[in-house]
Amino acid sequence: MQIRRVWWRQLVKPNERCGARIALLGLSLLTAGCAAQGKPYERANAPSNTATIYVYRPYNFFGSLMHPTVRCGNESAVIEPGGYHAFVLPAGRVTCSTSTETADLLDIDADPRVYYVRERMGWGLLVGRPELNPVDDDQAQWEIQSCCVREP
Amino acid sequence: MSLTDQSQVTFSYREELTHEENHVPMILSAIDPLTYAGYPMGEYVVIAVASLSIFHGGRLIGDYKAQSRVTKPYSMYSQPTHRELDDAVRVAVREKIDRELYADSARLVAAAGQTE
């Protein structure tokens, strides 16, 4: 540890050290500001004969500044990294979609029950590409409780 | 499901899709020159399990099961939608069920005739 400190002091002058600390603080504030703020996950109260589709987006630094709109049926929502949205829709065939430079489409033959979809941003040519991945209930319930908050 | 209200023959069909995904870590994809040459950055997998049961007057005369798996990689230049994957695996599993059904059609007709 002592060797590291000496190396750091030799490389960075005292006035530059202050700048580096401010830059680090700014970066941490910037990345923290990208994450969604809200209440922890809780099951939505949905009337019978409706399907509830939870679309959640675990936090990932890559693509965190991109917030593409997710549409399910007639509803739409912008989901920030670390957030989720519950779409409560009439049972039947529901199409969820999202797009930036490419689009992803997901058809769900929705019974009156709960479905989970994970949104992920992947690499793209110019901007990140959103994906909508259907996830099994067991895995999704654990993930959504540990990763995501309900957006206001 | 039956073809008419009066038919003794009823069909029960069930299809279940399971999705998997494999991704190369994004930091590795970013620094890998092959990524920019179109090398796959991951893949999507969909597995469909289907079963068709045929009853004649409450008696099971045909029971068919099939499983199909569709794997599609994605790269910087091409990315399938989940709708395309689901449609592809549904077509594949239904073709398998159809083949089983046609291969068994003679026995099925005889079984239906015996219960008349």
Instruction: Determine the strand fraction of chain A and express it as a percent band.
Output: 35-45%
Oligomer: heterodimer
Task: Compute the separation of the termini of chain A in Å.
Answer: 44 Å
Please report the two chains with the greatest interface, counting residues with C-beta closer than 8 angstroms to the partner's C-beta: A-B, 21 and 20 residues
Instruction: Decide which structural class fits the backbone of chain B.
Output: alpha+beta
Question: Which spans of chain B have pLDDT < 50 for at least 5 consecutive residues?
Answer: none
Helicity range of chain B: 25-40%
Number of helices of chain A: 3
Q: Alpha-carbon distance between the termini of chain B? A: 20 Å
Radius of gyration of chain A: 20 Å
Report the principal-axis shape of chain A: globular
Q: Could you say which structural class the secondary elements and strand pairing of chain A correspond to?
A: alpha+beta
Taking strands numbered 1, 2, ... along the chain, how are they ordered across the largest sheet of chain A?
A: 1-10-5-2-8-9
Written as H for each helix and E for each strand, in order along the chain, the element string of chain A is HHEEEEEEEEEHE
Number of helices of chain B: 4
- In total, how many beta strands of chain B? 3
Describe the fold and architecture:
The complex is a heterodimer of chains A (152) and B (116). With 152 residues, chain A is an alpha+beta fold. Chain A has helices at 2-11, 14-34, 137-147, and strands at 39-40, 50-57, 69-72, 75-78, 83-90, 92-99, 103-110, 114-122, 129-135, 149-150. In chain A, the strands form 2 sheets. Chain A has a 6-stranded mixed sheet, covered by helices on one side. In chain A, strand 3 and strand 4 (75-78) form a beta hairpin. With 116 residues, chain B is an alpha+beta fold. Chain B has a 3-stranded antiparallel sheet. The mean pLDDT of chain B is 90. Chain B is rod-shaped, with a radius of gyration of 21 Å. Chain B has helices at residues 26-31, 33-36, 82-103, 105-114; strands at 9-23, 42-56, 59-74.
